[in-house]
Write a structure and sequence with these properties.
single chain; alpha/beta; FAD/NAD(P)-binding domain; Cholesterol Oxidase, domain 2; 2 domains; globular; binds flavin-adenine dinucleotide; binds iron/sulfur cluster
Length: about 500
Amino acid sequence: MRERSYDIVVIGSGAGGGTVAAALAPAVRDGLRILVLEQGPRLRDDEFSGRELEMAAALYEDAGGFLTADGTMTLAFGCAYGGSTVVYTGTSLIAPERVIRAWDVPGLEHEDVVRRSRRYMEENSVHYLEPELINDNNRLFVEGCRKAGYRAEQFPVNVRGCMGSSLCNLGCPNAAKQGTNRVQLPRAEREGVEVVTRAEAQRLEEHAVLVRVHPRPSGAKGEPSEWEPGDYRLHAGIVVVAAGAVGSPALLLRSRLPVPLPWLGRGFTCHPAHILVAEHAGEITNDVGHPKSYYLDRAVEEGYVLETCMYFPFTTAKNLVGHGEGHSRLMHAFPRLQMILVLACDRALRENRVTTDRSGRPVVHYRFTNKVIASLVRGTRASAHIFFAAGALRVSAPSANPPVIEAADAHRVDELARARHFKLGKVAVSAAHLMGGCAMGRGAAESVTDAWGRVHGIPWLRVADASLFPDALEINPYLTIMALADRAAQAVRADARDLLEAWRPEAEP
Ligand SMILES: Cc1cc2nc3c(=O)[nH]c(=O)nc-3n(C[C@H](O)[C@H](O)[C@H](O)COP(=O)(O)OP(=O)(O)OC[C@H]3O[C@@H](n4cnc5c(N)ncnc54)[C@H](O)[C@@H]3O)c2cc1C
Ligand code: SF4
């Protein structure tokens, strides 16, 4: 096993890890050695082809098909230089005050989250898209909301030179979306932070990370790793874990940590979501233009948020209810389809948690509560009203009976979409806002870190990603993750001198 030594090792390069890397990068000038480990590959710009199946295989964990333990929900998360920011849509919202207040984490103020989020909005070129870049799929949502008595709001998005190819979730082929792969990581590398890809942190020991660097599989996209494949023991003064809400708890669970952390892995939330589809009489612009420009926030009133969306043929086919002729007819209507994503606001529960199997791989246990199902059904009804108000001929609604509602039955939507038709395992539910597992909080009985990502009782170990969320955010999370990671980086800077002085003499090989 090869041995190397760094002052700070960051594990993961997504919204959290990329932010920490950039925020700590100036310390390289003061002589600190900083390393980022990323288990996914680093793709060249010309490898972003926009082809659904090959990009999903290259950029997502399990090609986007990671299932919860009982198989009732698919979790989508990235595995590449830039993490899930390579595949996110880039909608950029600031955490609501009521949510941060309800989290009740001593030392975490909403104002501070807002201030840091604003800084990253500027850094990532967040703005409202110009009206000429809004496509019919989004315009119909706004119109349908208005006619159905709702007010849609426009998403600020983090794009620069967006060409409206609608391929955000397959990795932007035009380098327009400003994820950490485009902004924070390249800057950190220019300033001297080392980033090693295809480098999987297997477990932690006291001030050490055991890492396996994988060879590039033949025919796979992406560059080979910057390091020789093989096993490494990295000595580290400070370790910052930012492997995401599935990866971080899993890594800590398979490590030999010196103190018990009973809340580790618990309190996993994810905004479970349904894709709803409606058919119009004529063709609309749906798979050209930015896919997600508007949303309707009903979190407080009804426990759901609706967002415009446009998925690719394979994902759409998987999410439509039914099979055979009806399914085929809807798929053939693809150029006439309008789509809405219904997201439920779930709550952190003790039993919804990340564990590991015998080989150390993460397993996510998720129980749908009646409240979450009720939110999805209410969101489905509202979406159906919006679709019909926008002129749709029929709506494919998984929790309705029959699952395809014709315009003639538009007045019966509330009666047709019912919780009793929501059959877990038969209805396609997916989630892309993965949160919790290493929650911030008061003490080790009910949390894993303090408000600055310091793991309780282990001063050299920090967490800086979505796993810090003590409960669901009820909006799109990446800006809040960056704000929390920025705080974690600040705490590392504040504590580094003492921690490194105490560690260095014994560490140097
Ligand atoms: C399809 C999709 C669309 C989304 N759209 C939006 C949006 O529009 N707006 C928004 O706010 N949010 C969006 N999100 C959510 C957002 O992208 C994530 O919440 C955010 O990126 C999570 O940040 P993170 O740092 O916690 O994890 P990630 O960004 O997922 O990064 C974790 C990284 O750690 C790496 N890793 C894991 N384990 C290890 C290990 N053992 N060793 C080394 N590396 C490891 C992973 O490969 C990954 O690269 C979307 C997500 C998806 C999947
Ligand atoms: S819509 Fe814009 S940001 Fe999304 S993939 Fe196309 S060019 Fe990139």
